[in-house]
Automatic annotation (TrEMBL):
Gene3D superfamilies: 6.10.140.1330. Residues 13-417 form the Cation/H+ exchanger transmembrane domain. It is found in: Cell inner membrane; Cell membrane. Keywords: Antiport, Cell inner membrane, Cell membrane, Ion transport, Membrane, Sodium, Sodium transport, Transmembrane, Transmembrane helix, Transport. It is a multi-pass membrane protein. The keyword Cell membrane applies. It comes from the Bacteria. Belongs to the monovalent cation:proton antiporter 1 (CPA1) transporter (TC 2.A.36) family. It comes from Pseudomonas kulmbachensis. Na(+)/H(+) antiporter that extrudes sodium in exchange for external protons. Its main location: membrane. The chain crosses the membrane at residues 31-60, 81-103, 109-133, 154-175, 181-202, 214-232, 268-287, 307-336, 357-380, 392-416. This is Na+/H+ antiporter. NCBIfam families: a_cpa1.
Length: 546
């Protein structure tokens, strides 16, 4: 029962922290960390013991799956060059540069362990950046940070696992590690895509047989990231990349027919899950802070001087991470511009000004994935010895997360000062054009519909034709006009069913046209999601159509 009480208390705190975040001018992660630290204060004394493997398995797969699901695919492909350089090149650059610095600064941390710490400090958190920036970041920069956060979660944690293996076994070969990395990464991606595709086929088979209960399909979606992770890990591939690939694949398969209720329920469930899991991770960080501090200084003769020196170490590591990121962003961005001009492709979408480089640098906030990764460090080595400096590693990671959040809170508003982000005209035009095209598709579908269904008298046929014309007029003018006269109330049940059937046919024609536009890359995922949500709500309002 104590575990159940603890979980309920934490979930309640997640909700309360969201309300406090509206009153306190601080990012939600900082509020949640502070709430966890207050709850762990000796007078309250809430203590949560974490199993590293359980922590990694419980939190990472659904969060990475959701990131992969929500990432705009078209923007990801357009910015694939900058995203991959940040997500792969910068991770390796950080692992090497920061790893050697950490080993030099703290010689008690072996070099493989220092590389592991640098790797787990590489993943960024675009959700925290978005909360701090309050949607004022330019769209290309925000898409870069989203794509980087998606991919460097995978690359950073895969590199982290390799470094951990080297630290535990004491054996490392660069050639073997590189080959294994490629095999593990490709295997994880293939397993995630294949499993997600199989689940999509299973759902299609169930729908074709009338088994379209929304709750059942949503449960499949909830289990998919865990299944992808476990299957890949059992086969020796990357479970992290498998979860990411499953999420990206599922965003394509989510456009199944006759799944309106499922999509509506799925969006609500996953929004709740993301909110709860992200909040729980930062609350757990706050809860662990007193124990982390005690574990770091328990062997020191004096508390405050030792704690101060450890905090200075954290500051030094954070500044090095910041400098490495700025150097990489500045160098690669300018090199990309030179290569584009040399190949005759013109300038980049955004000119690499000093402000944009600093926005990308400070926007590399560490968050939930870093904490989940560092908490997964094993307690013991293979020989039964304690893992070297595990408490110090967790302290450094927690300190870097806090510093990156505080730095972003201070620097991002200053860097964004004077930037007036107007509406996204390109997306607005896409939405307007998609509504026009889908309305035309609905009108064409209604024009081809034979409203005579079974024996009807002249009055019924006239009413049916009038009803059809009224629906078509609504689509032509995009107006919600409903004739709620006494005559309309007196229409037979057959006419009501006919209206619902015609509207349903029109909505499904709109949705098919929308899918066609997406398949031909004429609209992006953001416009698709906005319009699909409205169409699903409109269909849901019709209720059961016979």
């Amino acid at each position: 029962m104590q575990t159940a009480y603890t979980v309920l208390i934490l979930l309640m705190l997640v909700s309360v922290s969201r309300l406090l975040g509206r009153l306190i001018p601080l990012p939600l992660p900082l509020v949640q960390i502070a709430a966890g630290a207050v709850l762990a204060w000796p007078t309250l004394g809430l203590h949560v013991a974490l199993d590293p493997e359980l922590f990694l398995f419980l939190f990472l797969p659904p969060l990475l799956f959701s990131d992969g699901w929500r990432m705009p695919k078209r923007e990801f492909w357009r910015l694939r060059g900058p995203i991959l350089t940040l997500a792969v090149g910068l991770v390796l650059f950080t692992v090497v540069g920061a790893g050697y610095f950490i080993h030099w600064l703290l010689p008690t941390i072996p070099l493989p362990v220092a590389f592991a710490l640098a790797a787990v400090l590489s993943p960024t958190d675009a959700v925290a950046v978005s909360a701090i920036a309050q949607n004022r970041l330019p769209a290309p920069l925000m898409h870069m940070l989203q794509g980087e956060a998606l991919m460097n979660d995978a690359t950073g944690l895969v590199t982290f696992k390799f470094a951990l293996v080297a630290a535990i076994t004491g054996v490392f070969s660069l050639a073997n590690a590189s080959l294994t990395f490629v095999l593990v990464a490709c295997g994880g991606l293939a397993i995630g895509v294949a499993l997600s595709w199989l689940v999509g086929r299973l759902r299609s088979w169930m729908i074709a047989r009338g088994w379209d209960d929304p709750a059942t399909h949503v449960v499949f979606m909830l289990l998919l990231p865990f299944a992808a992770y476990v299957l890949a890990e059992r086969l020796g591939a990357s479970g992290i990349l498998s979860a990411v690939a499953a999420g990206m694949m599922q965003s394509w398969l989510d456009l199944l027919p006759r799944q309106t209720s499922t999509r509506l329920l799925n969006r609500s469930v996953w929004s709740l899950l993301e909110f709860a899991f992200n909040g729980l991770i930062f609350l757990l960080l706050g809860l662990q802070l007193p124990d982390i501090i005690k574990a770091v200084v328990h062997l020191e003769p004096t508390l405050w001087p030792a704690l101060m020196y450890r905090c200075l170490d954290v500051v030094a590591i954070f500044l090095v991470l910041l400098a490495l990121r700025f150097i990489w962003v500045q160098s690669i961005w300018r090199l990309s511009g030179l290569l584009r001009r040399w190949r005759g492709k013109g300038e980049l979408t955004m000119v690499p000004t000093a402000r944009s480089c600093w926005l990308l640098t400070v926007g590399g906030v560490r968050g939930a994935v870093t904490l989940a990764g560092v908490m997964s460090i094993p307690l013991l080595l293979n020989e039964g010895l304690d893992f070297p400096e595990r408490d110090l590693l967790i302290f450094i990671a927690a300190g870097v997360i806090l510093l990156s959040l505080v730095a972003a809170c201070i620097a991002l508003p200053l860097l964004l000062r004077g930037i007036q982000k107007g509406p996204d005209d390109a997306m607005r035009n896409e939405v307007r054009e998609a509504w026009r095209r889908t309305a035309e598709a609905a009108i064409h579908a209604l024009e081809a519909e034979d409203v005579v269904d079974g024996p009807q008298d002249a009055a019924q046929a006239a009413l049916a034709a009038e009803l059809k014309a009224r629906i078509m007029s609504e689509y032509r003018h995009q107006l919600a006009v409903y004739n709620d006269s006494a005559e309309a109330q007196a229409l037979a049940t057959q006419m009501d069913q006919l209206e619902s059937r015609l509207r349903l046919k029109a909505l499904r024609a709109q949705r098919l046209e929308l899918y066609s536009l997406r398949r031909h890359h004429e609209i992006g995922d953001d416009a698709l999601g906005e319009i699909l949500k409205d169409l699903d709500l409109s269909e849901a309002n019709l209720g059961a159509v016979k």
